[in-house]
Structure formats: C-alpha cells, structure tokens
Design goal:
It is built from 10 helices and 14 strands. It has 367 residues and is of the alpha/beta class. It has 2 domains: 229 residues, 3-Layer(aba) Sandwich (Aspartate Aminotransferase, domain 2); 120 residues, Alpha-Beta Complex (Aspartate Aminotransferase, domain 1), CATH 3.90.1150.10. Strand 2, helix 4 and strand 3 form a beta-alpha-beta unit. The two termini are 25 Å apart. Bound molecules: pyridoxal-5'-phosphate (PLP). InterPro entries: DegT/StrS_aminotransferase, PyrdxlP-dep_Trfase, PyrdxlP-dep_Trfase_major, PyrdxlP-dep_Trfase_small. One of its GO terms (molecular function) is pyridoxal phosphate binding. Belongs to the DegT/DnrJ/EryC1 family.
Amino acid sequence: MDFTNLQSQYQLYKTQINAEIQKVLDSSSYINGESIARLERGLSEFCSSPFAIACSSGTDAIILALLACGVGRDDEVITTPFTFIATAEAIAFLGAKPVFVDIFEDTYNFNYHLIEEKITPKTKAILPVSLYGQVCDLYPINQIAQKYGLCVIEDGAQSFGGKYQGKYSCSLSPLATTSFFPSKPLGCYGDGGAVFCQDEGLAHKIKSLLSHGQKRRYIHQYIGMNARMDSLQASILCAKLKFFKDEILKRQEVAKYYDNHLQGVITPFIQEGNESVYAQYSICTPYRDELSVYLKEREIPTAVHYPMPLHLQEAFEYLGYKEGDFPVSEKISKQILSLPMSAFITQEERERVVEGVNGFMTSRGVV
Ligand SMILES: *Cc1c(COP(=O)(O)O)cnc(C)c1O
C-alpha cells in the first residue's frame, strides 16, 4: 500500500502530462514560459482569488508574502507552533520573530482567541495555517487584523481546494500561499508554490520580488530573490489542475469511509461550513506509537504530522520557549497519526486500513 499513490496518479494522466511537458521542451522557454501565465490564470480562476503568482516552493511563497507586507528585522509575526517548520522558518529567515499561539484541540488550527494578548507595537502580521486541508477561522482572524492594522497571510500549503463558508482557501485573506510539493493535494513533480493576493499593486510587487526585485530587465527596484517556478513544473500543474476537483471529491469520499468505519480513535473534526481537502487524514489516540508499529507490521504506511511542535525545536531555542508553553500542541503532537490518503486508494486498501486500526483498538480493549 502507498501513502499517497503518486504513481497511480501519473499513470492515469500520463498522456496529458507528457504532452504538456513536451510542449515546454519544444518551446525552449524553460523560465517564464507560456505555461506559467496559463497556470496563474487557472489557479486564480480555480479559487476565485484575483491574483495568483507561481513561485519556486511553498516556503518561498511565505517568504515572498512576508516581504510583500513589509515584514523585516525585529518585526513580530503571530503564528502556530503546530505546523511544518517552513511557516515559522520563513519569519525567522527574514530576521523577524515568530510569536506562537496554541491551537484548538478539535481542529488543530490556530486558536484565534489567543491572538490579541500577543499583539505588541512590533507585530506586523498574522500567519495562520490551514492544517491538514481544513481552512482555519479566517473571518475572526481577519477582523482582529483589521482592528490592529495587521496583515493576514494564510499558509494554505495543505488546504488549496478546501473551502471555508463556501469560499476557497487562498481567497479569504489579503495574502495567502500554497505549496505544490509532490505529496500536497495538488502537487507538481518537484518543488513549486504560489502566492495569492487581492490587490494588483501587491501582485506586481510579488512578481518583481521573485525575480530579483526587478522592474524590467537589469533594473532592480527591490532586494528580491530567485524564486520563480520552472515552466516544466507549471506545465505539469496545468495538466493536473483539470482533474483536481474530481480528486478532491474522491479524497472526501475516502475520508467519509474512514469517518464511518474507524473505531476507538478521534477522527478529523471538520467545522460546519468547511470542506477539507484532507491533505492528511489524521487520527488522534494516546496509543499512537504502538498503533503505527502495529500498522507497519501489516504493511500499512502511516506518518506523524508533526512529532515535535516548533517551540521545542532546537532551531527555535533562541526564542526561549519551554515545554508546557503550548499544552494543546504538545499533547496533539504525541497522539496524532496520519493514515494513507489519496484519490486513488482502492476499496480493498481502505478496508485494510480500517481493519488494521480497529483490530489494534480491539486488542487494547478500547472497542
Ligand atoms: C509543505 C508545507 C510548507 C512548505 O512547502 P514547500 O513547498 O515544501 O516549501 C509550508 N507550510 C506548510 C503548512 C506545509 O505543509
């Protein structure tokens, strides 16, 4: 059994993907080719965000978004410790300070009730994450940001295609980012990402920042980066974007099957009005470590997203946090376990996953 089934996906779309790749090879436009503009239009239409800018990775997308809202040395950015390191790493990389707030115990997303007490005169932005494919509570977060004149950047690396109150992830805040890392819900065949925004001036600035801050060739307005997406990666995404809506429905079907059949574990809690893309289908149980060994022995792959919250990572030692500072994140990091999830899991595989989990829980006397 495969955790993400990327090979099944390629085999299914092979003709379309190979044709798109061939077009780029024949064009010799390996940078800024026609596929980049086409992808940006496709992404913007898909999620109804006025501007989509393709870039080199989800991490660079966050750095670009932070730069676009002027985050720099000694600024503070409020974010969650229960995420992939890239979220807070991008903040720190710019010389700014990540300020963590804990998560909700049911959705594992950013607890917005805790934001206001962390706002100081140095706070520049709020960077919430839409974890596991479920969009975080952006309406209350946007409201707080507006009250204090802060920027909001949604880290939608896991949630592109997910919906909040009927609207798509990456269209709900002034700035948003996503990742096209191969195993994300919409993945390319290497690194890739995108920044989304609502304002044309900001879109121009981001476009410039990702190409050395240039206004036009060899005339540079900002200190920028080399953070362009390759034309080849864009072409693969153009092919895959056509199938994405259908894949989301299939992922949701798999999740529903798990929801209805798993016993003795906490299954993902999706808030009313939300539709998750299930970047991960993560269950919670105090028996996490034993369960993952049990499943591995039965050739059922699992993963832990994430085993150590960011405030306890060596890289962030200098921030001075300690164990106990974010109890919900700490507890969940010890109990969370992601099960195989993709649009291509067969019925037989779903049944095996469920039998594995339920079999273990029965052996523990939990069910
Ligand atoms: C994957 C991920 C990123 C980073 O994306 P890359 O494309 O790998 O750089 C950032 N934030 C979150 C929440 C992620 O899951």
